[in-house]
Amino acid sequence: MILVTGATGNVGRNVVAQLLAAGRRVRAVTRNPDAARLPRGAEVFGADLAEPDSLDGALRGIERLFLFPRPETAEQVLALARRRGVRRVVLLSASAVLDHDERNLIGAMHREVEDAVTASGLAATFVRPGGFAANALGWAPSIRAEGVVRAPYPELASAPVHERDIAAVATAALLEDGHEGAAYQLTGPHTLTQLEQVASIGVAAGRDIRFEEQTPQQARAQLLRAMPAPVVDSLLHIWARLADPEPEPEKILPTVEQVTGRPPSTFAQWAHEHSEAFR
Question: What is the C-alpha separation between 151 and 232, in angstroms, rounded?
Answer without folding.
Answer: 13
